[in-house]
Amino acid sequence: MIATRLQIENFRSYETLELDFGPGVNVFSGHNAQGKTNILEAIYICSCARSHRTARDQELIHRGRPGYRIELDYVIADGTKETIELQYGTQIQDGRPTNERRFWHNHIRQERIADLYGLFNAVIFAPEDLMLVKEGPVARRRFLDLLLSQIRPRYFATLQRFNRVLKQRNQLLKQLRDQQSMTRSGAFIATPDLALDYALLDVWDEQYAGHMSELIGERFELTERIREHAAIYHGLISGDREALDIRYRTMSGLKPEQSAAERMALILRRLGQLRRDDVVRGSTSIGAHRDDLDLRLNDQPLKLYGSQGQQRTAVLAMKLAELAVFRDLTGQTPVLLLDDVMSELDRRRRQALIAAMRDCQVMLTCTDTEQVQGELRELAGGQPLRFFHVDSSRVTTLDAAEKAD
Question: Are 11 and 305 in contact (CB under 8 A)?
Fold first, then answer.
């Protein structure tokens, strides 16, 4: 998969920008806070309709403008040329302004933003990725969900349905909690309305357990693939001095080898056991929205006992594993986006990164190309390197910048 051309309007620090990319390594150099990362961010958004830096689209709009536009041309493995266009901004509906995201594939408007997943694939490695270790379960679930949504777009649809049912179940639990009266003995007083609500809760439980079973099955399988690849890459980087292990942590009793029906039956049984507590609490106590990845180094929790260097090595191994899983399951090689990470890695880590991405198109930002010149030539593998210079959100080829000097 190769990105060939990018157009952006009113995105971050750019009013307008149009760039043509080479098939090998594209290097964006310049001082910090000049707009390099914004280019990689725009490319990444075309893969999953979200930024790796913020969940708020409003923050991506160039100051004072009503919205942004991104258009990306790319070529997939069989040589087919395709285009993705994304727009976000204020639209007038029924006479009232509303913020809306819109999306076109090959210049045809698509009704659902979910249909974007799986069209263009990109893997980004940025300083923020260290949060995979440092933050809580939300960051690690997001890692799994974004990767699975790009590899298997049906997963994203299941995740949406699960979240809708979870919301409806929680609303009903709150309603039951508020409606239910208690005697001094603590016994519930049954009413016709309560009976109907509990019958509806049975319906939500059935749907909830089905969607949760499907999500967890996919996460089990993906985690095992990530685990295998990450262990190999981590061994290469660390010289086999340390062992990285990654496990999916979910509701007790659920196992990878179970069938979807077995998982669903176990989830339904547990929901029944916890129903009274869930009503009192007004929320669902078990589910895919509470799961996590257990990251361990030499059988010790990485977050608690890993040094900064060890955590960085583990994250690098996970991102390289992400790249390998894309290749394994889609037959496509994603575009690799490296945001100011080469200078953060020692030579051993840079060599491992280069070995894993020789056949990728690479978009790379750095402040000083001289620091990584040798690695860049090795990474290019004989292909010409393409350099861009970024200064105050103005982008030129490096040759043009040097002539201007």
Answer: no
Which class is domain 1-121+332-405? alpha beta
Q: Which residue reads 């958004």 in tokens?
A: 45
- The residues, any chain, with a CB within 8 Å of residue 134's CB and separated by 6 or more, are 303, 311
Helices 137-151, 192-238: crossing angle, 10 deg rounding:
90
374 token code pair:
């040798």
Residues 6+ away with beta carbon under 8 Å from 107: 83, 85
Contacts of 344 (CB under 8 A, 6+ apart): 127, 312
Rounded to the nearest 10 degrees, how much is the dihedral formed by the CA atoms of 148, 149, 152, 158?
100
Determine the Cα–Cα distance for residues 335 and 359; give it in Å rounded to an integer.
10
Q: How far apart are CA 57 and CA 118, in angstroms?
A: 21
Domain boundaries, the chain: 1-121+332-405
Q: CA 99, 104, 110: angle at the middle one, nearest 5?
A: 80
Asked whether 24 and 384 are in contact (CB, 8 A), the reply is yes
pTM of the model: 0.86
Helix (H/G/I), strand (E/B), else coil: 192? helix
Query: Using one digit for the tens of pLDDT, what is the confidence trace for 242-268?
Result: 999 999 999 999 999 999 999 999 999
What single-letter amino acid sits at 82? E
